[in-house]
Design goal:
Length: about 350
């Protein structure tokens, strides 16, 4: 797992003025909104007796510990201890770790690391979120696999017609043509695209969504460090964009949070159909990836690679670069930057 990146940790719609526990990076955090609707992220542990603050309540823009009623404001500082006499100084160590927060693209993002603001890798652009011509659906899934494996599964062209034979993959040609492959690298990610020619009939309910036989489908896959993937599918009469967060719960668990955009089948009833399609694809992936070893190898030579693995190789090189810069995380390593949060 890596520090010094913005992590999209929850859908915006799921964060209210009621504290919500977040399991991420082998740790526990608490999310809530203050009276102005501003999201707050704190360590989910009262410094007094270690109780989960997420079991408490929000009062006067502070989170109140459910055990002894200690109140902590959005920057983590304790402002009230009910058991003390009025005027008693609050201990200097009565502080909860807090984290910089942004709300963007339908997610709450928290920065986890120790880089100053001007040096942090940015949140990647998602122009589709503001496009009024695109309809959105949301999807969430849990998988028992390291997030690096989950991520690489979404940037792998070569498994489509093998793993997804019962859904959209059946429609792809049995042999993909590298002449139609285009690759580009970016500062914190990379993307590649192919033009799948002679697309055949899709299986199950996918036949009502995807194009007619013998069509050309252009598909682009991309990733952005540390845990984001994006899929763009253009089949002429419509397109889909799938923006996915692979949230690392711990070394062996990942929560996938996905927003899917489409400019076709924009009827409300079609949302159910698209969610069924997403669930089918997710189950197909889950069956395979949960058999993999925990995380990607530390050494590029740890597994065999072929030409179609260009994106996963790029991901592993960037991962190794981050580790070499000292951005790797140890279990329960706290990286609070409360002085960077303005209230």
């Amino acid at each position: 797992m890596l520090k010094n990146f913005w992590y999209a940790c929850e859908f915006s719609s799921a964060v209210t003025n009621k504290p919500k526990q977040l399991l991420m990076l082998n740790q526990k955090f608490v999310l809530y909104r203050d009276s102005q609707g501003k999201p707050v992220v704190l360590k989910d542990k009262c410094p007094h007796r270690g109780v989960a603050l997420s079991m408490g309540k929000v009062k006067d823009d502070c989170i109140v510990c459910p055990y002894h009623g200690w109140k902590f404001q959005g920057d983590g500082a304790c402002v009230e201890i009910p058991a003390n006499k009025p005027g008693t100084p609050i201990p200097k160590k009565a502080v909860v770790d807090s984290y910089p927060v942004q709300e963007k693209y339908g997610f709450i993002w928290m920065f986890y690391g120790d880089l100053p603001e001007q040096e942090r890798p940015p949140i990647p652009a998602l122009p589709e979120f503001e496009d009024p011509n695109l309809r959105k659906t949301h999807f969430e899934q849990k998988v028992d696999i390291n997030y690096t494996r989950s991520l690489e599964g979404k940037i792998d062209f070569a498994h489509f017609n093998i793993v997804h034979q019962n859904s959209f993959g059946y429609s792809f040609p049995s042999q993909l043509n590298m002449e139609d492959y285009e690759y580009n690298s970016q500062d914190w990610g990379a993307y590649a695209s192919i033009n799948a020619k002679s697309y055949t009939n899709a299986g199950r309910f996918f036949r009502y969504i995807l194009p007619a036989p013998n069509s050309n489908v252009k598909m682009s896959l991309s990733f952005y460090m540390p845990n984001i993937t994006k899929v763009d599918v253009d089949f002429g009469r419509g397109k889909f964009v799938i923006f996915t967060i692979h949230l690392p719960v711990d070394d062996n668990k990942t929560i996938i949070k996905r927003i899917q955009f489409r400019n076709c089948f924009k009827f409300r009833w079609a949302d159910t159909l698209l969610k069924l399609a997403s669930k089918q694809v997710a189950i197909e992936d889950k069956i395979v990836v949960e058999t993999q070893e925990r995380a990607i190898p530390n050494d590029l030579a740890g597994e065999i690679h072929i030409a179609w693995d260009t994106l996963s190789i790029a991901h592993r090189k960037l991962y190794q670069k981050c580790m070499a810069m000292g951005w790797g995380l140890k279990p329960n390593q706290s990286q609070a930057k409360r002085q960077l949060v303005n209230y």
